[in-house]
Amino acid sequence: MSWPTVALGEVFDIARGGSPRPIAKYITTESDGLNWIKIGDASVGGKYIRQTKEKIRPEGLSKTRSVRPGDFLLTNSMSFGRPYIVDTHGCIHDGWLVLKPQPDFPVNADYFYHLLSSESIYRRFASRAGGSTVRNLNIDIVAGIDVPLPPLAEQRRIAAILDKADELRRKRQRALHVLNGLTQSIFLEMFGSPLETKTDVLGDIAEFKSGATPPRGASVYWDGAIPWISPKDMKRPYLSDSQDHVSEEAFVETNLKRIDPNSVLIVVRGMILAHTVPIALTTRDVAINQDVKAIRFEEAIDPMFGLWSLKALERYILSKVSSAAHGTKRLPMEELESLPVLVAPKSLQRQFASLVTKVEKMAGWAEHSLTAMNRTFGSLQFRAFNGEL
After folding, report:
1. Which tens digit of pLDDT belongs to each residue from 279-324?
2. Average pLDDT in the chain
3. Nearest 5°: phi and psi at 302?
4. Are residues 104 and 43 in the same domain?
5. Among 31, 120, 245, 259, which residue is least crowded by beta carbons within 10 Å?
6. 255 and 362 inside one domain
7. How confident is the model at residue 257, as a pLDDT?
8. What is the C-alpha separation between 5 and 2, in angstroms, rounded?
9. Do 111 and 168 share a domain, yes or no?
10. Residue 260 in 3-state DSSP?
11. Over the stretch 11-64, which tens digit does the pLDDT of each residue have?
């Protein structure tokens, strides 16, 4: 490859955003308001930022930083380094870095979007970002990253190839998203909302178990093969494994309880409850931590039906979440026990469970296909930015 290598700080003018404070005094709904770009305005997996949920008053402009179409934004903390192309005019707070193309360098926005999104650039950001728990990017880190700069025509060619490959991935992602939402739609179509068709309350038809954390200093409790589920593991509706595992000794020598297969788990404490309520079904014996409750339904309720009955109540459950000491969100036990439950005929529950099984098989295939596509796309990016495409 004969392309020159240049630092991002040569190609872009890099700056950090800023916030007028207190920000609440600057938020406006007036027509002359300036777009106030926040992390939440960027869609998951999206490429562009085209609109914002909030605006700020024009007098706040001197205390923030303006951006325009064609600029790049990088998140500089938490999920740092994620790039977006600005496709509007607005202002950014200090959670963003803006990269404005310098006039002396040929910059194709799509090429640099893929370059900044690549795994190799992310690893280089990560290796230089400070902080053990919350890593942060700053101007000097980003400016010092060397990147290949092919001629503009070559940038366009590479970007066109990667755009096509990326669109195939996005189509698979959209299909998977549809399949992941299909089960809830089937439930509502067959049974309606439990809020409208309630025939019982959860406390009358289920038993509950609490979780615990064995002493971390006792390694004998943490060298087993039994999944120990905490909120960070509850990203899927069906659980068979976790990041941490416990031993049989933990059940004998501590107050940890064994949770049977086909138990429904629900997160009842933690800041995660500010936005969502993770609910999942166990597919094997597990243990849980103190932020999770296990629900074991009576014989009249099929476990899979019970799972999706509770998932249909997520917004309602969030309305029952309260703040405990130190601002920790929690779902009180009395609220959990009083959740409305529909007790449908067992034949309909089995029919629903059969449909769900078919949907899950299709989703599993789509997820496997997406994983393969992601690997292929990563390989394609590597070749593209090493002059091998």
Report:
1. 999 999 999 999 999 999 999 999 999 999 999 999 999 999 988 7
2. 91
3. -65, 135
4. yes
5. 31
6. no
7. 95
8. 9
9. no
10. coil
11. 999 999 999 999 999 999 999 999 999 988 887 678 999 999 999 999 999 999
The gap from C-alpha 309 to its chain's centroid, in whole angstroms, comes to 23
* Strands, sheet with 83-86, edge to edge from the N-terminal-most edge strand: 12-16, 96-101, 72-75, 83-86, 48-49
Domain assignment present for residue 25? The answer is yes
Distance of alpha carbon 112 from alpha carbon 101, whole angstroms: 10
* Domain assignment present for 161: yes
> Cβ distance 56 to 37 under 8 Å?
no
318-321 contacts, C-beta under 8 A, 24 or more apart: 318/273, 318/276, 318/277, 321/273, 321/274, 321/277
pTM exceeds 0.90 for this model = no
pLDDT at 80 over 80: no
Tokens 């404070």 sit on residue: 21
On whether the CB atoms of residues 330 and 271 are closer than 8 A, the answer is: no
Which residue is associated with the tokens 């690549």? 118
Q: For 198, which DSSP code?
A: -
Judged by DSSP in three states, 91 sits in strand
CA separation for the pair 169, 370 (Å, rounded): 7
Instruction: Tell me the residue range of the domain where 300 lies.
Output: 193-341
